[in-house]
Amino acid sequence: MSERTNPITPQGFASLRAEYEQLFAVERPKVVEIVSWAAGNGDRSENGDYIYGRQRLREIDRKLGRLSKQMKFAKVIDPSHQDDRSQVYFGSTVVLADEDDNQRSVTIVGDDEADATAGRIGWNSPLAKALRGARLGDLRTVQLPSGPKEWEIVGISYPD
Predict the structure, then answer these.
(1) Residues 56-88 pLDDT 10s
(2) For residues 69 and 47, what is the distance between their CA atoms, to the nearest angstrom?
(3) Distance in angstroms (rounded) separating the CA atoms of residues 5 and 35
């Protein structure tokens, strides 16, 4: 992850924080207790609880480090406070229509909270970059692996 400011919605930041707290305050102490108990049972080379517990502890610590870094560089932006709602900015929900008039709705969120299956695309994704600053009726072309695709902006909304 590059060391840059990363926009994120308040809900996305709360989700990162909750995951961090769950790992740090609940899961990690449980695993430490298991490893501690297993270490007291003697030969550690054949002790599955000890070996797999230490492995799980390393996984948790790596994830805590990653979450900590994400939160450190996060810039919480509340899209409900957007003044100019006529253009596509961070946090907007955009309704797009392709040349066959198939419609698709996407919400532009932080890269750390993107989930394409739920219609949330990352701020730095090719589609989000193409949509930035667009207004109703604008046409935007996005380069996809299958070739360029043109979308028309048919709706822009922000949370209240």
Answers:
(1) 999 999 999 999 999 999 999 999 898 889 999
(2) 33
(3) 37
